[in-house]
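pasting for ref
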Amino acid sequence: MLIGAEDTDFATLLDGKAPRGLQLPDSEIAPRAALRMLRELAARIRPQFAPAAWWIVESGELVGLCSLTRLPIADAIDIGYGIAPSRQGRGHASGAIAHIVEWACSDPRVTAVTAETSVHNHPSQRVLERNGFLRIGERMDPEDGELICWRRLTVRIRPERPEDVDTIHNLTTAAFKHMPYSSQTEAAIVDALRRADALTVSLVATKDGAIVGHVAFSPVTINGEENGWYGLGPVSIWPVEQWKGIGHALIREGLSRLMDLNAEGCVVLGSPSYYSRFGFVSDPELRYGDVPPEHFQRLCFTDIVPKGEVAFHPGFHVA
């Protein structure tokens, strides 16, 4: 459970007492210097954005603390958290971050939650991964050393529903309208795949209940045979929501669902620099027509690496 941490709570804790009638663990939540710093930080943030910090409480005991590390930037909040050493390894951090994510998803002020962990702090990395955070980079901090940067969008991802069809069509049309490489048939492709029952995975991202993005995965053949491989795309995001990581989240979730279906792998036609971040690689021995090999990539889910000519579903050939 999370309880908003007020300035008076910090003052009580710094006096060596438990705030709000809670019990204290047999090891300190954080050193006094850190608590003073976090109190001052929360006091600076709170007038412009609240809550700024939370107590992590379990069975009436104050076991940890989670707080914002700065004022929100571009509607993204950055969090830090810690658990009393004697209470670590019991799932308290995972539960607390899950509550933070749930709150952030319901707060229209927040579009993303970010965090940083030491490259050596594997337990904290697992906490974030379990809560849907994606690793987006690394940086070197002069005091803390090498850090991994994480982000969790506040959009929700779910399978498409019948009532989503028109919105997905309009969304896909808008997303590709000004793309110079587009054939302007992407919306028709999705419709054709759906009519042929070939949308193996079709996911939408929603924000405040409204659809903001869509991704499709459909079966492909290799050398004329179906063998558990799928094609990624189209991926569509409303133009006003682009460059916020929504497509990234949709693709990650879609690939995960393909693996849950025991798929052998996935291919994609697109930017090598973008799709390589998901593990896609170019392979001259797996071809798609006369497309340059670097722009056609594969991602194997097993040790079996196919060779030959790939064909997408006939739905991709709509006029």
